[in-house]
Specification:
Largest sheet: 8 strands, mixed
CATH architecture of the largest domain: 3-Layer(aba) Sandwich
Helix content: 40-55%
CATH topology of the largest domain: Aminopeptidase
Distance between the termini: 105 Å
Shape: elongated
Oligomer: single chain
Number of helices: 21
Number of domains: 5
């Protein structure tokens, strides 16, 4: 025979399940009685009416993880940054709002507006939560996370309101923000509450090196704001540099150390309080070396061993992988891949997984490769390709393209007429955006540029494998020509047309295609482009010509490059 205490426990258990399933209004005492197998009068005698039963369920069965998590936060190591505590609490609210405020507790709070019994129960429960939150905030203040001008009671009220609001709206939200955006917002709130001067006390224990890359506004004070934000997680900045400026943003690379208790998500969230598009990876002891030192160290090695250039370039831009490949193989230039023309016969492919390459990194890596080529040339190696050509009313320098040429290539296109751009691309805007990086050398094959005496790029000549996708030619849909076929394309800005530059560049294009081992050359030209067609005729190659839908396709076999074994 069961005791009344055991019966009451069965009633509370059953009522908790029924209230959770049907809510307060949908649950009746007879339903509880049926679930327990006890008479309704016994249920009422042991627990009272429905309101009293609901209050008992709230008092005895509804427990969230919020109290436990707050207690853990208070007991966190003394050297753990206060922002880490806030981020952990914020993550808990975001990922599982119902764990902070159970659905029955939310219903109890709603009933507290008109039920004095429930008001008393919930007032006591919320008061306990408020005391826990107040303790955490006091801990944050002791750690120096909160500015003296922030009122503790007001902040406590905000925290409670935020957690209740999240739990209320979560079941009916159709969309939610990304977790990283939420963390960045919490970190931004923490940064706003932080003292103007964040002086992190020296802490015991190990520190972990990290690298952060993030975009901040291209405005005075933005970099200082980033450093301040990172200080909220007790990071020590050991190196910082601007790697790119574009579209009103600066991409900042930061080398830092942080307490071992701080995880990378917390560091990235803190950085996100001052910027956007953040990336993070583990750092190394070399991060303490500034960029000029690293460049000079690499150059010192190259002076005696130029062939080490690809590894030096990879170290300079912290690539995860480096390959020296045939010019017609591998992956084209893209955000996480740098394809650099080292010599006509060798390209260097650098890859990095943790963050995309910035334009400045392209320039640095390419410059290091050029340095090795120059050193090799002084040693009698002719791989540093380049020719000075006389043209009508001046001279030009024709050479391999470099990533940093992209802006000069864009300027040349901007100076060229719409007609000139149309004849090269069929579309006057085809060369822009991602095409620009490819056209300036980040593709399989080879790219030549012609530079004027004033240092402007005035001509661009591409040698694409004919199966190269998206190569920006009128017949870009013609693929699958085979690895032995090179497609050539050429654009000369208007002021340098009919001066002999096109003839010179086309001659070097054909020679480059031969050097790369192609056995046939293909040119796809608008039939109305009489100037380009005349240049092709002057090459001395034996062309086969077809015209279809206003497009002329010219093909010619290529003799082996001079010195190539028969």
């Amino acid at each position: 025979m069961t005791t009344e205490d055991e019966q009451r426990s069965r009633i509370i258990d059953a009522a908790a399940e029924l209230f959770a399933e049907h809510g307060y209004e949908g649950t009746r005492l007879r339903m509880v009685a049926a679930a327990t197998g006890l008479p309704a009068r016994t249920v009422k005698r042991l627990t009272g009416g429905r309101a009293e039963l609901f209050a008992a369920v709230m008092a005895e069965k509804v427990h969230s993880d919020a109290g436990r998590r707050l207690a853990e936060a208070v007991a966190a190591p003394a050297d753990e940054p206060g922002v880490s505590v806030l981020l952990e609490a914020g993550r808990g609210i975001f990922t599982a709002p119902s764990r902070s405020w159970d659905v029955l507790e939310l219903e109890a709070m709603a009933r507290a507006h008109r039920d004095p019994t429930m008001r008393a129960v919930e007032s006591e429960r919320v008061a306990a939560r408020r005391a826990n939150a107040r303790t955490v905030i006091r801990r944050l203040r002791e750690s120096g996370t909160i500015d003296a001008g922030v009122d503790d009671d007001t902040l406590t009220h905000f925290v409670l309101a935020l957690s209740v609001g999240m739990a209320m709206v979560d079941p009916v939200l159709e969309t939610r923000p990304r977790a990283e955006d939420w963390n960045a917002m919490i970190a931004r709130i923490a940064l706003a509450m932080a003292p103007p001067d964040i002086l992190v006390p020296a802490e015991e224990g190990g520190r972990t090196p990290w690298r952060v890359r993030i975009d901040v506004p291209d405005q005075p004070g933005a970099v200082a704001r980033l450093a301040r934000a990172l200080a909220t997680v007790h990071s020590h900045t050991i190196g910082m540099q601007v790697v790119e400026t574009r579209d009103g943003l600066r991409t900042i690379d930061v080398a830092l150390t942080a307490p071992a208790s701080v995880d990378p998500d917390e560091i990235l969230a803190a950085a996100g309080a001052a910027g956007q598009h953040g990336f993070i990876t583990e750092g190394s002891a070399d991060d303490a070396l500034d960029l000029p030192t690293r460049v000079l160290d690499g150059a010192t090695v190259l002076a005696t061993y130029p062939a080490w250039a690809p590894q030096a370039a990879a170290a300079l831009v912290e690539a995860d992988r480096v390959e020296v490949i045939d010019p017609t193989e591998g992956t084209d230039d893209r955000a996480n891949v740098l394809r650099l023309q080292w010599t006509p016969d060798r390209h260097v492919l650098l890859q990095r997984s943790w963050a995309p390459f910035a334009r400045a990194e392209q320039t640095r890596a390419s410059a290091l490769l050029r340095l090795s080529a120059a050193i090799a040339t002084l040693s009698g190696d002719a791989d540093a390709l380049g020719w000075v050509e006389s043209i009508r009313d001046g001279t030009v320098w024709i050479r391999l393209a470099h990533p940093e040429d992209a802006e000069l290539v864009a300027a040349m296109h901007a100076r060229s007429s719409e007609r000139t751009r149309y004849l090269r691309y069929v579309s006057t805007g085809e060369w822009r955006d991602v095409q620009l990086r490819r056209l300036a050398g980040g593709h399989r094959g080879g790219t030549l540029v012609a530079m004027s005496e004033e240092g402007a790029i005035v001509g661009l000549a591409n040698v694409f494998p004919a199966d190269e996708p998206d190569r920006g030619t009128p017949a870009a849909g013609e693929g699958g020509e085979g690895a032995g076929v090179a497609e050539i394309a050429l654009i000369i800005e208007d002021a340098y047309q009919r001066r002999g530059l096109g003839t010179a560049m086309l001659r070097h294009q054909v020679a480059l295609a031969q050097r790369l081992g192609f056995t046939e050359v293909l040119a796809v030209v608008l039939a109305e482009n009489s100037g380009m067609l005349e240049l092709l005729r002057r090459t001395g190659l034996t062309w086969q010509q077809t015209i279809e839908s206003g497009t002329a396709t010219w093909r010619a076999p290529l003799p082996p490059a001079p010195g190539t074994p028969a």
